Amino acid sequence: MMKRVFVIVLDSFGCGYEPDADLFGDVGANTLKSCFQSNYFHMPNMIAAGLGNIDGVDFLPKAEHPTGAHGRMRERSMGKDTTIGHWELSGIVSPKALPTYPNGFPEEVLRPFREQTGRGVLCNKPYSGTDVIRDYGEEHLKTGDLIVYTSADSVFQIAAHESLVPPEQLYEYCRIARKILQGKHGVGRVIARPFEGEYPFKRTTNRHDFSLEAPGKTMLDAIFESGKDVIAVGKIHDIFAGRGMTETIYTHGNTHGLEVTMELAERDFNGLCFVNLVDFDMLYGHRQDPDGYAKALAEFDAWLPGFLKKLNKDDLVLVTADHGCDPADQSTDHTREYVPILAFGDVAGSNLGTRSTFADLAATVTEVLGVPFECPGESFAKELEK
User: What is d(CA 385, CA 323) in angstroms, rounded to the nearest whole number?
Assistant: First the structure.
């Protein structure tokens, strides 16, 4: 039995394309390998734990005596986005993909949105978040119309200049959209994308996600209902629509997220600390920046030993991801990849192999915390025992 479990999601850190990647246009994708090819790649601590021993990872050194348990997990859900990935990590497999809009949103969505916000709509098509404010930012300032766009993911994104639409007002527009986008138009996330300055405009850190509620019970719900702590760090609160949490700590980027997680290691709590480090995905994967991604991985790897020193015997740390986002492929979209799973603490250096679903993580977390929870996953708790 563990007292504390830290789940740290390196957002988009995939480790090789899955067998059904052809259905998603992602054959050949490998986020880890693309980062490895950067001169800035330096992950000695994760490699010592067995990152190179994971099935399919044939380009990294293999640890003779791994310091952590290691393996990879396959996504069973029909998707490759943040929402569905985190839902599966928490115990919910989604057989049907959330809706996407390659041709923009229909009038049955936009009409009530315009009526209820009192503002017009610009763009309404898939777009890069940095390109869309470059191409529509000035028109937005002239007209007051909101920049609405999407991506390959199931998202409805609203960009607005903070001088014209303060963040709190933008969040209210997102809440309006969230109420409209239900049922067949139930997108995974409505995202506020505020920006500032003069052309070329710059996005601010006041992004906020308004997620669709998970369609079933998650490990967060189970742990919360058992009376234990569930501390959400980063965008975990937004991904799960605030459900099943005792505390939320928002962060501004990876560095801040690591600082918060380090502080939490010194706090006495009983339950789960669920951390998302979003910069890997948002700043480097989507922006096709393998060097930036590799530097961020090196920052995490250098942080890890100091964090592990603060652990107690009854603590467990699980490091994983929610999907891929290969920074060196031909697309700025997420990629259909396996994700690594590395376990740290008082654990055996066992090879966990290839797990059939991300939900194995939820089954493991709840078992080691002694929390009853039924899900499609299979716990690997026994394989962690020394």
Answer: 27
Residues 177, 224: one domain? no
Compute φ and ψ for 21, nearest 5 degrees. -60, -25
What is the overall mean pLDDT for the chain? 97
- Edge-first strand listing for the sheet containing 315-320: 247-249, 229-233, 271-277, 4-10, 315-320, 339-345, 69-73, 351-355
Which of 59, 92, 50, 57 shows the shortest CA–CA distance to 343?
A: 50
At which residue do the structure tokens 């990647």 appear? 21
CATH number at residue 237: 3.40.720.10
> What is the reported pTM?
0.92
Q: With bands split at pLDDT 50, 70 and 90, how would you rate the model's confidence at 205?
A: confident
**Alpha helices (H) in the chain, listed in sequence order:** 31-36, 44-49, 82-89, 107-117, 129-143, 167-180, 219-225, 236-239, 254-265, 279, 290-308, 360-368, 381-384
**Rounded Cα distance, 230 and 237, in Å:** 10
- Phi, psi angles (nearest 5°) of residue 62: -100, 135
Residue 152, domain extent: 107-211
CA distances from 215 to 41, 84, 87, 89 (A): 38, 11, 9, 14
Query: Is residue 116 domain-shared with residue 238, that is, in the same domain?
Result: no
* Residue ending a domain, choose from 146, 178, 211: 211
pLDDT band with cut points at 50, 70 and 90 for residue 153? confident
Number of domains in the chain: 2
